[in-house]
Amino acid sequence: MKTLVYAEHDNASLKDATLAVVTAASQIGEVHILVAGSGCGAVAEAAAKIAGVTTVHVADDAAYAQQLAENVAPLVASLMASYDAFLAPATSNGKNIAPRVAALLDVMQISDILSVESADTFTRPIYAGNAIATVQSSDAKKVITVRGTAFAKAQESSGSATIAAVASTGDAGTSTFISAEIAKQERPELTSAKIIVSGGRALKDADTFAATILPLADKLGAGVGASRAAVDAGFVPNDYQVGQTGKIVAPEVYVAVGISGAIQHLAGMKDSKVIIAINKDEDAPIFQVADIGLVGDLFTVVPEMVGKL
Amino acid sequence: MKIIVPVKRVIDYNVKPRVKPDGLGVDLANVKMSMNPFDEIAVEEALRLREKGVATEVIAVSIGPDKAQETLRTALAMGADRAILVVAEDVEPLGVAKILAKIMGEEQPGLVILGKQAIDDDSNQTGQMLAALTGRPQGTFANTVNVSGDAVHVAREVDGGLQTVALKMPAIITTDLRLNEPRYASLPNIMKAKSKPLAQKTPADYGVDVSPRLKTLKVIEPPVRSAGIKVADVDALVAKLKEMGVAA
Fold first, then answer.
1. Strand ordering across the sheet containing B82-87
2. Reported ipTM
């Protein structure tokens, strides 16, 4: 079996999300990587160093600068003539591109897999993780997105794959990149952070959120997340959202501050190793999943913690 | 310009799903069913575009069981003009996208607006697949939609922030949570919806083979996390953090 992994990158650096996909792909067969971008040579070199990868295909063309699905999907579909499976990370980019590839290949995608049971059988969450389904695909080729937190990261440094250029399939001419507003995050990225401090609606407003949560996150060297309620109320941008419809995270330690623990939020963080909850309502559902709970007013507890850490 | 809005009947957002004793699915008997929340956002966006004069007609489509009529009536009560029900059980996203592609061919809409995913199977595929099958551009996970001339600008919710793309119409859009807040249907509109046209079709009418490609071998409940301990004060919590080595 030969697999093609889609590299997550921003033309400058390879993203960690790729490493978990390589691990999943290696459980199916031989692993090749596709780097589609523009001026993405450094990414290809980084991809070639991932343990277990034998070939890195680089499609370097202006048409792939923003990895628009309209341009990238035909490229992947053409390469798939020589592969049995295509795997992409379940990031916003992977989720955008993979189903477009699947339809071009007339294949039913298997989304967000948690494990590889065999070359055609996988487990995946349904109903926001309230159930786990084992599904078997009868398609000749598999198209898969991979939940990054469910697989260990492949080693980043020991490999030595060959790098080969592939021809561009060009610009489909139907979509154009206009602009991006990507928040500059100096803190660890949520999906790869070891520690996450998340705030909920109880933080009142954007200023209070920043004044309360950020010092604690700084002390712990943590990434910062939020519940949907906090995002909807405008305390923080949407990409902070942890939950069923936001980011799925699984850090070593997840600190939930003023988060009641709605089922949609739990779906996004319940695989964290240790969950710590701070909430003034002792009946809050978050305490049913927390390893360590502290009942108290976050506005006194959190500053006290910051002082004592 | 017409807008097509596909909607799906799913287990209600507020119901906790239970795995069936046979371990082959989730129990849907006597469970409250509703329109997929992302699809409500799609209906709302289409209605707003009609109210702005950008669109002239909003057509709600569902591929599902007979009872999906209720879901379509909800869309009609919100304000959609007419509905098409393609009666079929458990059609996978690929099959749904193939049927929608045929309906697009018949109706020639300027936009198709879908929910980014259904909250039952969480596939997040149908919109992208429809775009691929029709060779049209896709604006997935939409946060803002603006039509100008023959292009639509879509601000997309991506990892790290927002990305804005311009798509030539016809285009496919999938909705994210913050695109809008869907309206509630008023009682008079619910009454009016009963007399709006609802056409019934089958996948065979469109010549689409919807046989499944995936077989569900089993469905289980995820491992349950049990509650841990409660600590009395900040000192105890800080001590625990130090014990775990996350604080010096």
1. A175-182, B161-168, B151-158, B138-148, B171-175, B111-115, B2-6, B57-64, B82-87, B198-201
2. 0.94
